[in-house]
């Protein structure tokens, strides 16, 4: 998240110096699709995934820099509807969690989420939003419906990218 803010501040400073060829936009995508109901046997979870993208574009719409993060926050509750999560906790984004996020041990490529998103961000630099959205993807399973299916990313990124593409697309629409 700090990287997103730093990129945004740099772009604002550049814009303030009279540079009109560089624009930065913020985009986001919010989903509650991973929320679950409580049952007699298991707690439920109200989960909100908030994907954020700060993107800097040149005058031709090419991406100069991009920072993406995801705040994945779940609030657990029992069958009676009582919240069982620690209300005083301060959730971290996936980038802030770093190695503690825990994807590396489950990843077929042995990479943590922040490492995979960094590779996706690097791939996006120098491309337009149309080129980013034209990326060939494949459905791996229900949880991974849009995984990169291109040589540059197949061995580096196993996460589904559709929501990140949407956030970057919105960032272009909001670029100033």
Beta strand count: 5
The major beta sheet can be summarized as:
3 strands, antiparallel
Mean pLDDT: 91
**Which outline best applies?**
globular
Structural class: alpha+beta
Question: Termini, distance in Å?
Answer: 20 Å
Give Rg in angstroms.
18 Å
How would you characterize this protein structure?
- The structure is a single chain.
- The longest helix is centred in the N-terminal third of the chain and has 15 residues, at 2-16.
- The protein is 28% helix and 24% strand.
- The protein has helices spanning 2-16, 94-97, 113-124, 129-133, 162-174; strands at residues 23-31, 44-57, 63-77, 137-138, 147-148.
- The strands form two sheets. The protein has a three-stranded antiparallel β-sheet with strand order 1-2-3, with helices on both faces. Strands 4-5 form a two-stranded antiparallel ribbon.
- The radius of gyration is 18 Å and the shape is globular.
- It has one domain (2-174).
- The two termini are 20 Å apart.
- The protein has 176 residues and is of the alpha+beta class.
